[in-house]
Structure prediction request, 299 residues.
Amino acid sequence: MNNRCQEQIDFFLNHLRAERNLSHNTLAAYHQDLEKLALFCRQTGKNGFDELSQLDVAEFLKQIARGGLGVRSQARLLSALRGCFRFLLSEQMVKSDPTRDIPLPRAGRKLPSFLTLQEVEALLAAPRGEGPLQLRDRAMLEVLYATGLRVSELVGMKLDWLDLDSGLVRAFGKRRKERLVPMGEPAKKALAEYLEKGRPALLKNRRSDYVFVTSRGRHISRQAFWKKIRHYALICGINRRISPHQLRHSFATHLLERGADLRSVQTLLGHSDIATTEIYTHINSARLRQVIDKFHPRT
Prediction:
């Protein structure tokens, strides 16, 4: 390693050790990242970090990426370099910070998981029986899939947010943004049956503003509903772990598969940015790619 690079690295690490009281493992990670840059300096004929330009650092990061380092590891590496150069600049050991305008690498968005139509139908049919808990759970599942509500919007739903005659529910999303979401007939029927028979039996003359309540008269929690949906998934043979949010993903995916326009789905989901909704078009593209790969004779 170049002597000046080593001096600069040691000076920075001593600062971290003394001023920030970082763990041994964290310091070792910083050291490892900075040694990679020092090796790049030696390979390119630089005597120290103070001779590196922004183009040099960008080329170094490209080499690292081509070497197979993951996006998150690349981001951590760049953060380490930024910290080092900012410190060296404050100590006047370099004249500028070549990392300043280099953006952090970002991982692509993970496609949301969803259920097939057959899995949804099986899940909705899983709460068998006419007991108050079965009526409640069936209504919750039907409403969740019919509206694409967030689970927090579902469990927090209040009676005066419902208009069963019109088949509408008021939802309050992030930052209390209000929207009206329509329900189909199966959800309306399940909800009406629960409100008539199941909810009074659970409340036992107690009062509650919430639609979905427990046998203790309280509104059901998110955690309790998560457990319920996983229980019903196992009953109907869905062996992978699922969550209420997957019904929201399924709602959006199935609408787009059947020709719904993206703006309408955005409104129904309560997304402020259509780019968030566009992730569901990527799901459809990925599925079409799988169909081509599986069935086309020349793939």
